[in-house]
C-alpha cells in the first residue's frame, strides 16, 4: 500500500497514517505554520464566537423565555449559544421580545454562520490540501525525466548531491531515497523530493521513477545494501549511469558485477588523500579543491569541439588531464591518442570562479617540515 505525504500535512492525520503504510513520497514545500497551531487558532476562534454569543444573549436575557422556569441565567445563555451556533435548536429557550429577535437576526445569525465556517473550513482545508498535494505529486511524476536518484542521505549522499548540483543540476531533478524519515525530512527541507523506504525493494525505487532516471548514486551505509540496491536499480533501468560507494575495497568488484558503472571506495579514497596530504600539504589542498565543484579548480568532462579536432591535447585552451575515446581513458600524453577526434571527450581542469580566488586555494599553506 502506498501513501502520498507532503511536508505540512496535518500532524494528527500523519501519525494515524504512518501505521498503515510501508513508505511515503515527500515533495519539498515551505511550511508556513505548524498544523497544531493552525488547529489551535481555529478552536480559539470558535470559542471566542461562542463566548461572544453567550454574552450577547445574557445581556438581553429579559428578552428570552425559558420554558422550564421562564428566566434565563448565565448558564442558560451559554446553553442557548451552544445549541444555536451548532444549529441544533431544541426550542426550549426562545427570544420573545422584538429586541432579542432583531439581535438574533442581525448578530446571532452572522455569528452562527461564522462559527460554521470555522468548523467546516478546517475540514475543507484538509481535503483541499490533500487534493492539491495529490495533484502536485501526479504532476511531479509526469514531468520527471532524466533525473538523478540518490540512495542514502548521509554524509556521502549529501556531498554527492551538492557536487552534481554545483554543476548545474536543478534540485527539482533530484530524488532522495532513504529508510529514515528524519533524513527525508532534511532532504525535503533542502528542496529535494524524497522517498521514505528500503531501496532494495523494487517498488520503492519505482516510486522514485528510477526506470526513467539518467543517473543513480548509491551511498548507503552498508556494502551489502549497496550491492542489493545496485542489482535492483540495474534491473529496472538498463541504461542509467550507476555510481556506488563502498567501505571495503574487496567489495568493489562485486558492485561492478552487480551493474555499477563506477565504484568509489570511500575508506581507501580518504586514506589516499591523507597520505598525499602528509607527503605534500599543497598537493592535498589541490586535490581537495578539485573534488569540490563550483569553486576554485574543477574537474570537467566536455566534448571535443570542431576547432580542436586534429590537435594534440597540449594545444587546447584548457588543461587536459585525460582523453575518453570509446570505453578507454587515456592519459594526456598517451601516444595512442595521436590527435583529437570529434567523438572524443576531454577531462579538463578549469577555474570555476576566475579572478576571485588564489590557486589552488586562498587558505595559507601549512609550514613544510624541515629536512
What's this entry about, in short?
The protein is α/β, with parallel strands linked by helices. The chain is 44% helix and 17% strand. The chain has 11 helices and 14 strands.
Describe the structure.
The chain is of the alpha/beta class. It is built from eleven helices and 14 strands. The strands form three sheets. It has an eight-stranded mixed sheet, with helices on both faces. The longest helix is centred in the N-terminal third of the chain and has 46 residues, at 98-143. It is elongated. The model is unreliable at 1-21 and 354-371 (pLDDT under 50).
Keywords:
11 helices, disordered C terminus, 14 strands, eight-stranded mixed sheet
| Low-pLDDT ranges | 1-21, 354-371
Q: What is the helix tally?
A: 11
Give the integer mean of the pLDDT values: 79
Proportion in β-strands:
15-25%
Largest sheet: 8 strands, mixed
Amino acid at each position: 500500500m502506498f501513501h502520498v505525504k507532503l511536508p505540512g500535512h496535518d500532524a494528527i492525520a500523519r501519525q494515524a497514517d504512518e501505521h498503515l503504510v510501508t513508505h511515503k513520497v515527500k515533495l519539498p514545500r515551505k511550511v508556513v505554520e505548524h498544523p497544531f497551531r493552525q488547529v489551535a487558532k481555529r478552536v480559539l476562534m470558535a470559542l471566542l464566537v461562542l463566548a461572544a454569543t453567550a454574552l450577547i444573549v445574557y445581556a438581553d436575557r429579559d428578552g428570552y423565555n425559558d420554558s422550564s422556569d421562564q428566566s434565563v441565567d448565565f448558564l442558560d445563555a451559554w446553553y442557548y449559544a451552544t445549541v444555536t451556533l451548532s444549529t441544533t435548536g431544541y426550542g426550549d429557550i426562545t427570544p420573545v421580545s422584538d429586541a432579542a429577535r432583531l439581535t438574533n437576526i442581525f448578530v446571532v445569525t452572522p455569528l452562527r454562520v461564522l462559527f460554521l465556517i470555522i468548523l467546516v473550513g478546517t475540514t475543507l482545508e484538509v481535503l483541499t490540501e490533500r487534493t492539491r498535494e495529490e495533484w502536485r505529486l501526479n504532476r511531479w511524476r509526469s514531468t520527471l525525466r532524466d533525473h538523478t536518484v540518490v540512495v542514502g542521505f548521509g554524509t556521502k549522499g549529501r556531498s554527492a548531491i551538492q557536487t552534481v548540483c554545483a554543476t548545474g543540476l536543478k534540485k527539482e531533478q533530484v530524488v532522495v531515497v532513504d529508510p529514515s524519515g528524519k533524513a527525508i525530512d532534511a532532504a525535503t527541507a533542502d528542496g529535494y523530493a524524497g522517498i521514505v523506504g528500503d531501496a532494495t525493494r523494487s517498488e520503492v525505487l519505482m516510486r522514485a521513477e528510477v526506470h526513467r532516471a539518467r543517473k543513480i548514486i548509491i551511498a548507503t551505509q552498508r556494502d551489502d545494501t549497496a550491492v542489493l540496491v545496485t542489482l535492483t536499480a540495474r534491473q529496472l533501468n538498463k541504461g542509467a549511469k550507476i555510481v556506488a560507494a563502498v567501505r571495503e575495497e574487496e567489495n568493489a568488484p562485486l558492485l561492478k558485477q552487480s551493474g555499477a558503472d563506477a565504484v568509489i571506495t570511500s575508506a581507501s579514497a580518504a586514506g589516499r588523500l591523507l597520505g598525499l596530504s602528509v607527503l605534500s600539504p599543497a598537493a592535498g589542498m589541490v586535490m581537495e579543491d578539485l573534488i569540490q565543484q563550483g569553486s576554485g579548480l574543477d574537474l570537467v568532462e566536455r566534448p571535443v569541439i570542431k576547432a580542436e579536432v586534429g590537435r594534440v591535447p597540449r594545444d587546447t585552451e584548457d588543461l587536459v588531464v585525460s582523453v575518453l575515446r570509446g570505453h578507454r581513458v587515456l592519459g594526456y600524453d598517451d601516444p595512442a591518442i595521436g590527435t583529437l577526434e570529434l567523438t572524443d571527450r576531454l577531462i579538463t581542469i578549469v577555474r570555476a570562479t576566475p579572478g576571485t580566488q588564489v590557486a589552488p586555494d586562498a587558505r595559507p599553506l601549512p609550514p613544510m617540515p624541515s629536512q
